[in-house]
Structures are given as C-alpha cells and as structure tokens.
Amino acid sequence: MALQAALIITGIAIALLIIYGADVASSITIDGEVGERKTGFLPMSEMQRGIGLGTPALILPIIGFFISLKEPSKGLGMMIIVAGILIIIGGIVVIANPSPESVDRDPVGSAVMLFAPALIQLTLGAIKIKKS
C-alpha cells in the first residue's frame, strides 16, 4: 500500500514538473524574451508558479522514497530519478536565460536551490534501485 502511494505522489510530482516547464515555455517568445503577458497558459506569476508547482515537485519524490523505504521498487527509483533530471533541466534553463529586467535574481542562489534537491532525488532514486 505504501508503495502505491509513493508511486502516485511521485507521478504527481513529475506531472507538476511537466506542467511547470510547459507553462514557462509558453511564456517565452521565439527570440527568447518573456512575452508581453509574462505568464504562460496558467494565470500565475513566476513566484506563484514556483511555489504552487515547483515546491511540491521538489518535496513529493523525497516523501515517496521515505514512505516506501522498506519496499523494493525499481520503478519508483526510476521515477524519482526522472523527477531529479527534470529539475536539473529546469535549473539549467533558468540559469541560461537572463532574468527579466524587473527581477533581480541571484543565479548562484537559484542554482543551489534547484540543484541541491535534484541531487538528493537522484541519490535517493539510485539507492531505491540498488536496494531492489
């Protein structure tokens, strides 16, 4: 039962990351600048999008790992690794794209806040696969 719950919440995290990425991609124009609306298809600001979609996507796979700690599952390990990879890809895109003029963003701080949980997820996914 715990394994099913872990698979579901990790799947939700992956879905949130995909929605987050699609929303960011839809807010960027062809030349790489943020569009006039500065929002994607979801009516959210960057901060709301990060809190509402990003934070649960960072936390849920870690919770999934720990609630299914005693149950072996290569599938869950792979899902946790996929979530970590999606976060790393998003972090690279954030760092590579210049921040809007109205936003003062620290690229090193952004990198640490994104890559640390992603590396934790990658490690937990590898542990889950190894113990399976």
Structure description:
The protein is mostly helical. It has one domain. Helix content is 72%, strand content 0%. The longest helix is centred in the first third of the chain and has 26 residues. The two termini are 17 Å apart.
Give a short summary of the structure.
The chain has 132 residues and is an all-alpha fold. The chain has one domain.
List keywords for this structure.
132 residues; mainly alpha; 72% helix
Shape: elongated
The chain-level structural class is mainly alpha
How far from one another are the termini? 17 Å
The poorly predicted ranges are: none
Strand residues, percent: under 5%
**Structure summary, number of beta strands:** 0
Number of helices: 4
Helicity level, as a percent range?
over 70%
Overall radius of gyration: 16 Å
The domain count comes to 1
Rounded average pLDDT: 86
What is the ordering of alpha helices and beta strands?
HHHH
Biggest sheet descriptor: none
List the SSEs and their pairings:
Blueprint: H1 2-27, H2 46-67, H3 74-96, H4 107-130
Helix pairs in contact: 1-2, 1-3, 2-3, 2-4, 3-4
